[in-house]
Amino acid sequence: MQTNPNLAAQAMPDWPAIAAVVLGVTAFSVAQGVTYPLISLVLEARGVSPTLIGVNAFGFALGLAAATLMIGRLTQRFRAQHLIVAGLIGCSVCLATFAAFSSMPVWFLARFVLGFCASVIFMLSEAWLNVACPDRLRGRVSGIYGAAVCAGFAAGPLAIPLFGTAGGFGFALTAVYLALVAFATGLLMVQTRTVPEPSSTKDVFIFFRHAPMLVAMVFAFGFADIAAISAMPVYFVKSGHSEAFAALSVTVLALPTALAQPFIGYALDRLSRHAVAVGTAAVAAGGYIALPFLDQPVPILVAFGLIGAASFSLYTCALTMLGERFRGSMLVAGSAAYALTYAVGSGAGSSLTGLVMGVVGLDAGPLMVGAALAVFTGFFALSGRRRG
């Protein structure tokens, strides 16, 4: 009698799959941490206008959207592990393209492919992580995954001062690194026992209908996360702090976020997952609301670090609860729905915060984000009571 290996993982974790997923997504996070600032700096040094730099960056967003819509068809035709390795190789080729060519149309196409491959890696990695992990360990494994993503994004920009922006050396070295990780990931995947089940575009929209609060959690994360990264450094400078302080705030945002995720994961396995999610949302809301009332650097950085850790913890909670509530094809569909929701939430967070600061007043930016998170916290707490 044969047994379903995905069901077997509910008793014993599939450690090779978990290791392959974490290794692959960490490598891509490092690469994305390099490319986001490095491409902008290189294009700016070439005299490219800010408008064209923004248009070039839009290619990445188009690639993310295309992958989300095609993930069902891809998983029906190819095995998930092959798609993840192909995504890593595709990212490596794109980075090598940035090093070898200087044409703007070529870079736009490379950023589109990079966004497509990135989205495939993240969606399938999150689905596979939940398939490979039993529920008793799901929070801790999700916490390690979240810490790896945060650490990769934080470490990526360090390549810029080490290797500079000229000559494409940073792109080339990162491309080689990704190719090596793709090879190592492929070796690990030979030993795996589990695999995500194929999904479809229809399943994505079914997921939206069946898990509105999980989708809302991801939206709140995207809204708060991008507001912190894009709008708050501007807020600090305009409120009288130095540009060096604004740059330091981004580092302070990233490091506690990475360090906190394993502890959040442990709490998710030991406490009520709904209560942990409500608590993290409340801390993020309180941090934003407190910012305008703080004027000393240390308290501001402490509050900002709490904002980063708490807002990303919302995503760790959503990822854990996805695996707790759903099985089979809905895991890939849920990951795709998360990707779409994060894109919408992050777009709303950056644009609305900047608009409110410009129209209403500087302090209105963090207060608006904090108020929105507070309203979400209340709705989420009430939804948990109704379900209970």
TrEMBL record:
Residue ranges occupied by any Major facilitator superfamily (MFS) profile domain in the UniProt entry: 17-388
GO molecular function, one term: transmembrane transporter activity
A GO cellular component entry from the record: plasma membrane
PROSITE patterns: MFS
Keyword Membrane: yes
Superkingdom of source: Bacteria
Transmembrane feature ranges: 49-71, 83-102, 108-131, 143-163, 169-190, 211-232, 244-268, 275-294, 300-323, 330-352, 364-382
Keyword tags: Membrane, Transmembrane, Transmembrane helix
Gene3D superfamilies: MFS general substrate transporter like domains
Pfam families found in the cross-reference section: MFS_1
PANTHER family for this protein: MFS TRANSPORTER, TRANSPORTER MFS SUPERFAMILY
UniProt protein name: MFS family permease
